[in-house]
UniProtKB/TrEMBL annotation:
One of its GO terms (biological process) is negative regulation of bacterial-type flagellum-dependent cell motility. Residues 11-72 form the PAS domain. It catalyses: 2 GTP = 3',3'-c-di-GMP + 2 diphosphate. Its cofactor is Mg(2+). The lineage of its organism: Bacteria, Pseudomonadati, Pseudomonadota, Gammaproteobacteria, Chromatiales. This is diguanylate cyclase.
């Protein structure tokens, strides 16, 4: 035999050694019998199941996490029947009741007549990759949440309010339910800053925001810092009477907080002026017109003496 000639057993031995020395787990399933012709010994250190325990395709299916099983099995069967190479990510169950994220890469082997003969592939442990992806998703969600949060008070910011208003405007238009908006302004806040300093002014705004959160009791209510010393409370499915009652509660809550304000021209404590607007009619007009309407009511409250509520229906 020449140096370039090898017998079949030697070649098979080399292939087997190569396959079993990789971290990827090779496998082969006979299509007609749906039994494993081979699975690499790497499977046992990874999942705890011995090579000998992988007998049929049912063993593979039952070792997929229940939440992933139906989709993965149906997908792989349909792709295999069509003769389409494919891959699937899923959680494989370990013998000790844990799970490992697997990427299964599948190649369909066909007979000369085109029928499926076998499936061959590799299983890859992608747990670390999945952890990194999940962490990235978590960080993205956290960043998105921060982008909707006012940095000083921790409540929603103007961007979050605008997005919620768009959503609730469309919802109210479909359902025909009323939508209300409460806008509040801390009275004589410039004088507060002049008297106590901007650091204490920031503390005052945080105290006001914390106090007003008690008025935004329902899941869909949105309390936001509208800008500067101005706050807004969006109230879906709330009529004019209910909205005014909530505004009155805001007045009481702020008074009960007893935040000192010696520079106020109203009294010794922090107070707020409030505009309350309600609409039942949802035209093609942008919600911006509604905000302007309620802002006008807030201006009236300030013009008419502050520490009061002005309300109306658009």
């Amino acid at each position: 035999m020449s140096d370039k000639e090898y017998d079949a057993d030697s070649v098979d031995a080399v292939h087997k050694t190569l396959l079993e020395s990789t971290k990827a787990i090779p496998w082969k399933i006979d299509w007609d019998t749906m039994t494993f012709a081979y699975i690499g010994p790497q499977i046992e250190p990874l999942l705890g199941w011995t090579q000998e325990s992988w007998v049929t395709a049912e063993d593979w299916a039952m070792r997929i996490h229940p939440d992933d099983r139906d989709y993965v099995v149906n997908f792989c069967i349909s792709q295999s029947k069509e003769g389409i190479d494919h891959e699937a990510d899923y959680r494989a169950l370990t013998k000790d009741n844990g799970y490992v994220w697997i990427r299964d890469v599948v190649h369909v082997v066909r007979k000369e007549n085109g029928d499926v003969e076998a499936l061959v592939g590799f299983m890859f442990d992608i747990s670390e990759r999945k952890k990194a992806e999940e962490e990235l998703i978590r960080l993205q969600a956290e960043l998105e949440a921060l982008s909707f949060m006012d940095g000083l008070t921790g409540i929603a910011n103007r961007r979050r309010l605008d997005a919620a208003l768009e959503t609730e405007w469309a919802s109210a238009r479909r359902s025909g339910t009323p939508l209300s908006l409460v806008m509040l302004d801390v009275d004589y806040f410039k004088q507060y800053n002049d008297r106590y300093g901007h650091g204490q002014g920031d503390t005052c705004l945080k105290d006001v925001a914390e106090t007003l959160q008690a008025a935004a009791a329902r899941p869909r209510d949105v309390l936001a810092r509208f800008g500067g010393e101005e706050f807004a409370l969006l109230l879906p499915e709330t009529d004019a009477d209910a909205a005014k009652a909530i505004a009155e509660r805001c007045i009481r809550l702020i008074a009960a907080r007893e935040i000192p304000h010696e520079a106020s021209r109203i009294g010794p404590l922090v107070t707020v002026s409030i505009g309350v607007g309600t609409t039942h009619t949802f035209t093609e007009d942008e919600p911006r017109r509604f905000v302007d309407f309620v802002d006008g009511l807030l201006y009236q409250a300030k013009h008419n003496g502050r520490n009061r509520i002005e309300s109306g229906t658009m």
